[in-house]
Write a structure and sequence with these properties.
The complex is a heterotrimer of chains A (511), B (267) and C (222). With 511 residues, chain A is of the alpha/beta class. Chain A has 18 helices and 19 strands. In chain A, the strands form four sheets. Chain A has a six-stranded mixed beta sheet with strand order 6-7-8-3-9-10, with helices on both faces. In chain A, strands 15-16-17-13-18-19 form a six-stranded mixed beta sheet, sandwiched between helices. A four-stranded antiparallel beta sheet of chain A has the order 2-1-4-5, with no helix packed on it. In chain A, helix 4 packs parallel to helix 6. Chain C has nine helices and no strands. The N and C termini of chain C lie close together (8 Å). The chains are: A alpha/beta (511), B mainly alpha (267), C mainly alpha (222). Chains in contact: A-B, A-C, B-C. At the A-C interface, strand 4 of A face helix 9 of C.
């Protein structure tokens, strides 16, 4: 480790990236997007380096470049040099560098390959050719360190998000590389645990590159150097500088509603349970149109269950949900004019009748599904078509909209959500573009309420706010499920906190 | 949905060496196909013995499970075999027509007991041996490391893809809710279901295929492909119990094969 | 094993990179082969479990396993289809509690996948040799079968399907005959034929669809 005072011995930076340029294969895309253009970075040995970047800026791509998965398994044009502890790794295979470079992926499911926790830790040690006893020793040690012993034989499907992340960190520890890359790997971890982990790395003199899209004050305090990834380039700077660049794009603007706020959904004595394991119980709750309601709470508190019930995916064990008899969803889109009104009017009359029908259980799941839109966190689960145009047109076709109305609606959606090339298959779009496509196709399905599950996990706040504004202009209600408390409080009119399957508190937000 | 035939009930067979278990299962299964003296007596005897062993080690309820699953097939065999095996003395007549002959009965008994026996044997093996041990057993008999790895990886991803399917199906339901009862087209419900299933299958396939390069990179980043000789962390025990189980296996196999061996010697 | 070895690529990469670094032509590394086989095996297991209509009392259910096998054969090639078909259906049998059929499924569906894959591969090669595709294919740097696999010839699909169906139905009839007698085994034949027909149709459409929907798939096949 380099001594802080004058050192006559030059220690090579642990991570040295020079003139990195990379773009994925084009596959016929018209616009050539470079992920990195002449990017450079130098991280000193023993530093904890935090690289901030907005979602979609290329952090995960950078991690994959470092571990050599890219361009090996992705194709594309790559140039530049990467040195770890002075060794040029750009010509090496991933299996050659696994013992000098560690990596924890943003999505643990992407990296976990074995059927049990114990096997997952043992597998790379087997690859290294270690003796059975040594493997056993290391496995036991890291399982204790990361509190994984109770789940040693558990399969990845049985682990929670935090446990999976701990598993990845445990594997890193068992292999023991000097340089570690953590791709948003510290979220969902206990604060104290996080602090101890980073402190531990520092004591051992390891170099850690933390890729983050959220600002963690404590981490910033513990870190030694900083950089900001944007526009394919890396800008190193002090903590203040980097935070400044980052915050510029992370302003949370409020969403304006021009329509009057009305109650849309009313839940009375609603309950649902997954056997003995989990039960949801809501005594009384109402969700309004023309407002933002934030749904917050720890994992497992029932947010997803509640949303599934609201949109009609899950049935109720007891209780009822009343949906407003006014056709709020259909009155909202005045600026889009004919495409929707023409198709919707006969259907609208039918639906309001169904809502007013005396029904012991309240509104049927069917009606809920047609009135409430639920956008999953992962857009790929809700994109089914082979091209952007087909995807957007799906709902329109089902509603019987054709001809000029169809073309206008499609053009409108693409314009509003900044989707330029309609002939592209969705799989070639970036994650942010896919999220916008998901939103756009739901926008074309008239709903009175839109639920967004963890929208802040893939889009910057600026993008989120402008997208929500488009939905707000229709007069529909918005529900945001999020972990980000300050975001929730800033943007929402109502904040519902879930805890153990109950709506623990309903508060006014600042939105 | 994705369960496993294996259930850890801690019987003696669970602790029995799986390599010997496999040999016994295979040996016994082959035996059921070999020509033997008095098959109409021995085949059922061998099969009932397996059933009794299963019931003894795992309990009657567990032993009944595989039988229940093949019951429809057994009934089919019962009904369809006699009409096609008409040799031997007539046993059942309706007026002038011969319905069932002794040959028919013999063949039916032979088929039912053989199939039941094999079902019970395989059930016994996979019920008392975890998949991990099954793979280790096959490896000890020569299964290549790569195929064993493919199996392990497939087992890791089955729940993931199953969950994918569920999620994608709900997502599709959200976009495409069931129409009002009056609108459901009569007939061709299956065809519509098929057409609606197609985009779901497509999405699941795309999501699955996308994981392939990730998995490959993940394997290599965990060291697959390194020059060093790979070691193995897990292995089947090699101790006095293995010897004991091997001896038991030898005794069992020679026991059940003895009639054939004796028969051949005399012949 | 992979007949389409990477030829020397005209590189647009800087000279400090060795020539075995892939930029356009994907390397089908052993890890990639294993990953392909594993994921498609898992997919086959899930598809086999998916639609369980207890129709044919003999094997228990009609399923979409054949869809997965034909899809794999049409998209990923004979060896992947052999492994995915054989292991996939065998594991599905084990998990569903029909372990006695596992060795048989392993053999029969493995052969089904292998045969279908080999025939479609031959058909595609024939098409490339005889049509104008050859000119453009050799000009592009992607000279693997990938470049033209998205043009599966219809007659190739039909012959691959026919052979696969015959293998599957005939072998199941044979194996079933030995196990439960030929009369009972014959009952299964109509159901098997339907499953195959659906499998070939859906498999072909899914294979054609995936090239449109997911262009990077052209990098995967062996």
């Amino acid at each position: 480790m380099a001594s802080p005072s004058s050192s006559s011995i030059e220690i090579a930076p642990s991570i040295e990236i020079a003139h990195l340029s990379f773009s994925y294969p084009q596959y016929g895309r018209r616009q050539h997007t470079h992920i990195f253009s002449d990017a450079s970075l130098s991280v000193e040995s023993g530093d904890i380096h935090v690289m901030l970047g907005l979602p979609g800026s290329g952090k995960s791509s950078l991690a994959r470049v470092l571990i050599r998965a890219v361009p090996r398994y992705s194709g594309g044009e790559f140039s530049g040099s990467i040195k770890i502890d002075g060794v040029d790794i750009s010509i090496k295979m991933p299996y050659e560098i696994m013992d000098i470079l560690g990596y924890a992926a943003q999505d643990p499911d992407e990296q976990i390959i074995m059927t049990t926790v114990e096997d997952e830790i043992a597998f790379p040690l087997e690859s290294l050719g270690l003796e059975r006893e040594e493997i056993g020793r290391r496995v036991a040690k890291v399982m204790e360190q990361f509190a994984l012993q109770p789940m040693a034989q558990a399969s990845p499907a049985e682990l929670s998000g935090g446990e999976k992340k701990r598993l990845l960190l445990a594997v890193n520890e068992a292999i023991g590389p000097e340089v570690i890359v953590l791709d948003e790997a510290l979220e969902e971890l206990d604060e104290q645990f996080r602090r101890q982990l980073i402190a531990g790395y520092k004591d051992q003199g390891r170099t850690v590159l933390v890729l983050a899209s959220k600002v963690d004050e404590e981490l910033i305090r513990q870190a030694d150097s900083f950089s900001y990834l944007s526009g394919g380039k890396i800008r190193e700077g002090s903590a203040e500088e980097v935070l400044g660049w980052y915050r510029e794009y992370q302003q949370i603007e409020t969403v304006d509603f021009s329509k009057e706020r009305k109650t849309y959904l009313e839940l009375n004595d609603v309950s649902f349970s997954y056997g003995k394991r989990f039960s949801l119980q809501i005594d009384r709750l109402s969700i309004d149109t023309a407002s933002v309601t934030a749904l917050v709470g720890p994992n497992g508190s029932g947010k997803t269950t509640l949303c599934s019930i609201l949109c009609g995916l899950l049935p109720l064990d007891s209780g009822e949900i009343q949906i407003s008899a006014d056709d709020v969803s259909f009155g909202g889109r005045s600026e889009t004019k004919s495409p929707f009104d023409a198709a919707r009017k006969p259907a609208a009359a039918r639906k309001s009748g169904a809502a007013r029908k005396p029904d012991v259980k309240g509104t049927s799941a069917d009606v809920l599904r047609r009135s409430v839109g639920y956008l999953f966190q992962n857009p790929d689960y809700q994109i089914f078509s082979s091209t952007v145009d087909e995807e957007l047109g799906y709902g329109l076709k089902r509603a019987g909209i054709r001809g000029q109305d169809y073309d206008d609606a499609l053009a409108l959606a693409k314009d509003r959500f900044d989707l330029k090339d309609g002939t592209l298959p969705p799989t070639l779009l970036s994650y942010g573009e896919r999220k916008r496509l998901q939103a756009a196709s739901y926008y074309l399905l008239p709903r009175g309420l839109y639920i967004f599950d963890e929208i802040d996990s893939g889009l910057s706040f600026r993008e989120i706010c402008s997208m929500l504004q488009i939905f707000a202009d229709t007069g529909a209600g918005i529900v945001l499920v999020t972990h980000h408390l300050s975001f929730a409080q800033r943007i929402a009119q109502t904040v519902i906190t879930m805890e153990n399957g109950r709506a623990a508190s309903v508060q006014r937000g600042q939105g | 949905m994705i369960g496993s035939a294996y259930r850890d009930t801690g019987s003696l067979l669970h602790a029995f060496d799986p390599r010997v278990k496999l040999l016994i299962v295979l040996g016994w299964s082959v035996l059921l196909f070999l020509p033997m003296p008095q098959p109409q007596f021995r085949l059922p005897l061998y099969s009932v013995t397996v059933f009794l062993l299963t019931a003894g080690f795992l309990g009657i309820r567990d032993a009944w499970t595989p039988i229940r699953s093949i019951l429809p097939l057994l009934i089919l065999v019962l009904l369809l075999t006699p009409p096609f095996y008409r040799d031997g003395t007539p046993v059942l007549l309706i007026g002038e027509r011969v319905i069932v002959t002794s040959g028919g009965i013999e063949e039916t008994v032979r088929l039912i007991s053989r199939f039941t026996g094999i079902t019970m044997l395989f059930f016994l093996f996979f019920r008392t041996t975890s998949l991990q041990h099954v793979i280790l057993t096959l490896r000890s008999y020569g299964l290549s490391y790569r195929i064993a790895l493919v199996i392990t990886l497939a087992l890791r991803y089955i729940p993931y893809i199953a969950q994918l399917f569920k999620t994608v199906r709900s997502a599709h339901a959200l976009r495409d809710p069931m129409t009002e009862p009056e609108e459901v087209r009569k007939g061709w419900g299956l065809r519509r279901k098929g057409l609606e299933l197609f985009p779901v299958l497509m999405s699941v396939i795309i999501a699955s295929v996308k994981t392939i390069p990730n998995l490959a990179a993940g394997l290599e980043f965990r060291g697959f492909g390194r020059e060093e000789q790979r070691t193995s962390y897990r292995r089947l025990p090699r101790d006095i119990r293995t010897l004991r189980d091997g001896l038991i296996g030898l005794i069992v196999l020679s026991g059940i094969y003895s009639p054939i061996i004796l028969h051949m010697k005399l012949f | 094993m992979d007949a389409d070895k990477p030829t020397n690529q005209p590189t647009n990469q800087p000279t400090n990179q060795p020539t075995n670094k892939p930029t356009n032509k994907p390397t089908i590394s052993p890890a990639l082969r294993i990953a392909m086989a594993a994921i498609l095996t898992a997919l086959t297991v899930v598809f086999t479990y998916l639609v369980r209509v207890p129709v044919a009392p003999t094997r228990g259910y009609i399923n979409l396993g054949d869809v997965a096998i034909y899809f794999t054969a049409f998209t990923f090639g004979p060896v992947t289809a052999l492994i995915a078909g054989g292991l996939g259906t065998a594991i599905a049998d084990l998990l569903a509690g029909y372990a006695q059929w596992a060795p048989i499924s392993l053999l029969i569906h493995g052969l089904q996948g292998l045969a279908a894959g080999l025939i479609i591969k031959t058909a595609v090669k024939k098409k490339i040799a005889s049509s104008s595709f050859s000119a453009s294919a050799s000009a592009s740097s992607q000279t693997s079968s990938a470049a033209y696999r998205n043009h599966l010839p219809l007659w190739g699909i039909i012959s691959a399907g026919l052979v696969g169906t015959i293998i599957m139905a005939a072998l199941y009839f044979l194996a079933g005959g030995i196990l439960v007698g030929f009369p009972a085994a014959a009952v299964e034949i109509p159901g098997n034929l339907i499953q195959n027909a659906v499998g070939i149709l859906a498999g072909a459409f899914l294979a054609a669809g995936i090239y449109r929907a997911y262009p990077p798939i052209e990098r995967l096949s062996w």
